[in-house]
Every structure is written in C-alpha cells, then in structure tokens.
Here is the input.
Amino acid sequence: WVHDVGKAHPDTQRYLKHEIQQGPNHSAAGAFLVSGKCDLLAFPIAGHHGGLPSPTQLKQRLSDPKELKNSAIALERAKTVLPGLFKDLDLEQFVPSYLQTSGLKQELFIRMLFSCLTDADFLDTEAHFSPDKSSARANELSMTQLWQRFQKDQERLSGQKEDLLNKSRHEIYNYCLMAAGRESGIFSLTVPTGGGKTRSALAFALTHAIKHDLKRIIVAIPYTSIIEQTADVYRNILGPEAVLEHHSAVNVEGEVESSEEETRRRLMSENWDAPVIVTTTVQLFESLFSNRGSRCRKLHNIAGSALILDEVQTLPTHLLRPILDVVQQLVDHYRVSVVLCTATQPALQKGPIKEGLCNVREIIQEPQQYFAALKRVNYEFPFRKETWSWGKLADVLKQEEQALVVLNTKKDAMALLDSIGLDENTFHLSTLLCGAHRRAVLEEIRHRLDNKLPCRVVSTQVIEAGVDLDFPIVFRAVGPLDRIIQAAGRCNREGKMLAGKVIVFVPCYGKIPPGSYRSGADIFTTLIRDESIDLNDLGLINTYFAKLYQVGELDSKNIQKLRQQLDYPQVATRFRLIEQDTELAIVPYRPHIGEIQRHISQLHHTGPSRQLLRLIQPYVVSIHKRSLINLQKEQIIKSVVPGVWEWLGGYDSVRGIVNIKHNPADLVV
Here is the structure.
C-alpha cells in the first residue's frame, strides 16, 4: 500500500481512467510517508520503478518542490480513501534487529525488500492485464519429485563398474548423500576432474533441499562455454520443465511475444521461479549488486535455496571481499545453503575464500585421496630450458596423431594455425567461431578420438573446463596454475592409459592476458623454476593460491565502502565480473546459411522476439563495441536490429571470422 500511495493523487486517478495523457510521479509520496518512521524503506519505495537510489539522490528527490507538492496532495487524499494506512504505521516492527550492527547488512536487506516489491508489483500488474501469462508461470514440481527422477537415472550408473575411476565416483556420490543431512550452511565439494562432480553436487543439493525445506537449486558456473552442457545433463536427468537455463540472454529493445513454451521460460527467467536454475557466475553476482528492478526482482527467490558455486577458485580476486560478504549474509539471514565446488584441491584450504566465510565444511572425507588415486597425467616443463617458436610447436604437434594445444589468446591460436598451414586433421576452437560451429567441431573431434583417427586441436581457454574430451597428450602455454590443471583434465580423462602427458611450454611470441590472469601466470612461472617441484604435489598448489591471494586487492573498486553508504547506483556501476562491452554479430556459418538468412530477414521484417533471438544465438560472435564504427565504415558489418549486427566479412571453416584489414582476435571477445 505504501509504495503506491501516491496514486491517490487526483491527477493519477484521471490518468488511470485515460482522461489525461500523463499523471505525476507516484513513488515519492510513499517515501515521504515512511521518512522519519523507517528510513530504510524509503529506498525501495522511491526506487520501485526507476531503480534503487543513492542517499543523495533520495534526499534531492524528497526536497524537490514539485515532488513535495504532489506528495502532499496524494497523502491528504489517501487519508480519506485509506484511513487504516495512517492509523498504526509501525514499520519498525518489520526490520530485523541484526541490521542495527552493520551497514552492509542493511544494504542487502534493502536490496532484498526491493526485489520482493518489484517482483510482486510486476506479478500483480501481469495478473490483472495478462492473466494468460500469469497462469503460464505455474510450476508444481517438488524437490521430492525431482529426487525420485534423479534416483531412477542414477541407478543405471552408480556402482555398476569396479574400475578405480567409477569406484571413486560412486564413493564421492555417497559422501554427498551422507553430508546432505547436516545442518544448513556452507559446504565445500572438492573433487578432481573426472570425479563426477556435476551429478554428485546435484544429488547433495536435492537431498539437502528436502531435509531443510529449500524451494530451489541454483547452479552458478563461471564459463558460458559449459552452461549448455551442464543444463542439458540436468534436463536429461530431471526433465526439461524442471530446469531453467539463464545466462547471457540478448536484451534488445522492441521485443515481441512468441510461443507459449518460450513465454513460460522467459517468465521464469525474469524472477528465477523454477526448481533448478543453471546460470553464470556473472549473472548471479551482477544481479546481487545491481540497482535495477528488472535485474533485482529475482533476488528474493535466492532466499531459501541451495546455491552451488562451481569452480569457485575462479571468482575474481579484485571483487572477492564484497562477493564473500554477500554469500555469508545469504547463509546467515536468508536460509541459503552454499556448496563451493572446485577441482583444484588446496584452493579452499587457505586464503580469503576460506577465511572470508564461516564454518566451511568439506563434504568429502580426505579429498586428497582421490587426487592421488585419480592421478592420470605426468607433467613436463621444457620452458625451464627454452622457449618454443610457433614453427617448433607446429613441428612437435605434427608428430602426434592425437593432441590438444591450449593457448592463452586468440592471436596466439591464429599464429600457430599459420605455422601449421592447411591440414585436414587440424581443428580450431575459440570464440572466433560461433556456438554452432564450435559444437560441430567438438562432435568431429569426439568422433576422431573415439575411432583413433588423426586429430590435432588448437584451442583457447574455451576448452578447459567441463568439455568432455580425452587426449593422450596436451600442450599448454604457461598460464595460471589452475588453468593448467584444467587443461590437464582433457588428458587421459577416462583413465584408459597408465598416464597421459601434459607439456607446459612458453611460446616465443605468445601473449598473456592482463590482470589476475597475468599475476597467476607469473606466480606459476616463478614457482616451477624449482626443478624438484611437480604439479601433482598438492603442497605446490597450496603455495600458489596463497601467493595469488596475497598479490591481489580483494576490493579494488571500493564496493564495500559504497555499500556501507547505501550508494546503490555506484555499486551497480563498479561491480563488473567481466569488463567488456560487446554486441552480437550474426556470422554466415555455411552449413546453416539458409536458416541464418531466414532469421535475419525475419528480424528485419518483424523485429526481435525472444524466440527469434534464441534461434540466432548459435550463429553469433561477440564483437567489441569500440570496433563497430570502423567495421561499419569498412562495410564489414551492418546493423540488423539495435544490439545485433550481420557480419559481412569472411568466415572460414577452420578459423571462424576472418578479415583482411584487422586481426579478428582484436575484434572478438
């Protein structure tokens, strides 16, 4: 009632009856009403349409003469039509006592109230004007039903084989079931690559949710390259209607409605009202630090959930302090249980992640036993003595029937492909390829690996996490230690060999991305100069993470200070997990060129719909905005609809986008 009390203004009533074109802003009146009684509530009330304001913005608004006049008229009228609203306006009774001890706790509490308010406002309006949409939101699947589906699927796998790998996976799964009965809070799940972490984490979350009456499971993954793969695994187990896949959706103005099923999925993605959500770490945390109603309306549905943070060691060091503070608050005050997943065993033993969170309990007893038991590779370090030219690397690679090379940048990948030349047995994976192209390449690679055919792959980091490939030998350019271990997870993955081989090298002209990636690479290079050290030594990994966290500033954007000050707009501006500004370009991927042209024509003709944008998603690459003006002048790209372009430059069956004037690696994220 309070947030819309301004609608009691006579001109607002006339506007609602279509007697005038525009009524006064109605959100300030409620903020006036609560000011001095419960000031915290003024923020979500004043911002329920425009976004959470800063204290300065709120003060300016509440001192604006026009707002003062309109609010006074509205409140005076409201006393007549809503007398009960003014009789006992004791709002302080709703504010938890723990907020008195911390500005940071106040900040998140206001944000959660803002989420409740904006979502309820959207849903109420929708129920009135679009009851068909409202009914499409219905979802009656319980955690118990989902667990029954999971158990049925698990029967075909668990305990069926007695080899060391499958025996270990079964033990890890059982540890997860046993731990699920513990009190809610923060858990760590430390499982080496290939240990069945994806399924076991879901088993824990489902049984833990039943035990503690949690209403949903949220899985946050750092790499968009494996979101679809993980969501597909969960859909195959639980059914497509149970799983919402929500990541970098395209936001384009003028979107129109589409099919009934697509409408249901879009509606669920707006406020995460689904039993299982698979999303990105970026989507999760940038929403938790946003000030816009459209992004925040899902936040209250995080409360009362099991939250799985996959590959937690990849959380950006420069934002760790605010991230960990919010995670701890979700556990302490919003009935959330958190699972910190990692395949890099010592990453959570020491350092800010463990120290910034209270009572982190490991699910697996003595997880190091599985790292020893599932050791599948030996490492070699030729860079201790020499650097490799692209020509030398190409020659070494050609001597292998099946091999993977993982490089740090797209430019390096292009340089190596130049040295290799035309070779029908060499494949390339990077974001220069659209998603459909990468999936087709991966299918061909799997076919060749399974049938022992020649297969040499030049890839960037897109292949490192969660992509189920199994090479006998992997070459990895020097980089952060955890990335090297991830690359090693593509070597002898199924344990078919006694030991695979991972060769860590330094390319003569290779580049290393800046920031924490370069810091990690520098620390690894320094540590590994000691020839007595081996990457299978968990002590080395422990030392690496200790040094990595010492190097970085844990709140380089001063987010915590801004949160203390309740400066919501500045927090939203500064909190960025990925510093990039891109738009989408549809590429002419030849096997689907007819379909792509039809989609482009439909975009021109009817404008964007969520269904149509999902159809073009497999055929796009992300282009830096800074490049768009020059590319447009050179007629290499042209606009289709705002935010979506058509790529008119070359598109190669191996390299993806190519261009005569520019290095394509400079254009694409």
